[in-house]
Amino acid sequence: MTLKLNEKFIRDFVSSEEIQNMQPMVNTAHRMLVERTSPGSDFLGWMDLPVAYDRAEFAAIKEAAKKIQKSCDIFIVIGIGGSYLGARAVIEFLKSPLYNNLAKDTPQIYFSGNSISSSAMEELLALCEGKDVCINVISKSGTTTEPAVAFRIFRNLLEQKYGAEGARERIFVTTDRARGTLKNFADQAGFETFVVPDDVGGRFSVLTAVGLLPIAVSGADIDALMQGAAEARAAYTDPSLEKNICYRYAALRNILYRKGKTTEILAGYEPYELMLCEWWKQLYGESEGKDNRGIFPASVIFSTDLHSLGQYIQDGLRNIFETVLSVKDSGSHVEIPEDPANIDGLNFLSGKTISYVNDTAMLGTLFAHNDGGVPNLVLELADRSAHSLGHLLYFFELGCALSGNLLGVNPFNQPGVEAYKKNMFALLGKAGYEAQKAELEARMQ
Ligand code: PA5
Q: Is 286 a catalytic residue?
């Protein structure tokens, strides 16, 4: 079993009857997904991706990854939001958050264009000095400011370093199949392009070229990732809450939300889960947080954050629930050594593995947080393999889509993201935003 949902630590908060009562709503939400009548149904392409992906492009991704591995020391992935979080999450989960320090036969991978930080850019440019560099710019719209600015800078760098011809071999573009300025530009310049399918939105795109090219460059197994996702797709087709743990997860969080648990904390126990939590936060936050509704997605990595946010979770405002991610076999077996002087009094742990202590910390925390009035769902993932991660990614995507339908929002749009962009463009003096600029300047007086 790749993934299990352990509900022991939710029993005091949600009754079986409440779960059963959700079944009709879940049936409707499920029908809306499979019959493609859900709000935003033009963006349901991710549902079939694990079995219906473009095989020719998949092969081209592997070829491009080999070429990149051979020709550079540093591979820069330029993108923001759904155009970078999935790749970064998978690379850190499967390889390491220290991938760049540990990589031997594959390039170092840095992510750029996900902020407007001048210092981050300066530091990355410094890292590139004297190194061979390839870049992959990823933008479905092709017009997002942050990656567009970074692309200008790195394109210039490559053209200065290798000339136009040489740069062409080192620039890879992932964007819309046919439309958009980036696609036109890439075609004119002769860059190799990969596709963000029309019916897959950014935050659901990790299993397209958006995620797969950088993941393949890291040497992670993209076949196994897709197979794991295909396993999840096959596992969660029956809407029965007795059988479908993905829908059960969505139903439980909906019940908790209606009981005032308006914040969900995804709690990992491994530093390699940190970026997975960031990916999950975007997936759920951007999909559900609209029309003045939605669970606020937060995340922690324990035991690190037990020493920072633990106090609040134990004792603060009782509007939270936790979804704990437990990787049953993380594949690492470091033992705690004996200390003859027993200075710290921890010799009772000598010979035990760090993982054993981590698992015990998790159990102790589950009991403590439950006693503190925090419902805890536990997702038990078999191991840290690409197959298991592929399963988990699909589980979260499907759970998110069903959740959005249960909540009565369109999970596939993000109208709220435009507000800051309009203000920024107005304040920067972009043509067409003059009235908005005047209005904002008046408000600053
Ligand atoms: O999920 C989404 O759609 C967004 O997070 C986008 O991925 C993000 O805004 C980047 O957009 P684009 O790929 O068009 O540059």
A: yes
Residue 131 designated active-site: no
Quote the tokens at residue 140. Answer: 């479905």
> Does the reported pTM lie above 0.85?
yes
How far is it, in rounded angstroms, from Cα 136 to Cα 171?
A: 6
Question: What tokens were used for 410?
Answer: 């369109």
Query: Is 391 annotated as catalytic?
Result: no
In sequence order, the 6+-apart residues with CB closer than 8 A to the CB of 28 are 405
* H helix or E strand, kind and range, residue 193: strand 192-196
Q: Which of 70, 131, 421, 422 is catalytic?
A: 421
User: DSSP string of 331-397?
Assistant: S--PBPPP-TT-TTS-GGGTT-BHHHHHHHHHHHHHHHHHHTT--EEEEEEEESSHHHHHHHHHHHH
What 8-state DSSP symbol labels residue 145? H
Q: Is residue 147 pLDDT above 90, yes or no? A: yes
Distance 201 CA to ligand 1 centre (A): 7
Q: How many helices (H) and strands (E) does the chain have?
A: 18, 10
pLDDT digits (tens, 9 = 90+) for 53-92: 999 999 999 999 999 999 999 999 999 999 999 999 999 9
Which of 42, 140, 179, 205 is the pocket-test mutation for ligand 1 (most atoms within 8 Å of CB)? 140
Q: What CA–CA distance (Å, rounded) separates 5 from 100?
A: 33
Q: Which of 286, 288, 322, 397 is catalytic?
A: 286
Residues in the chain: 445
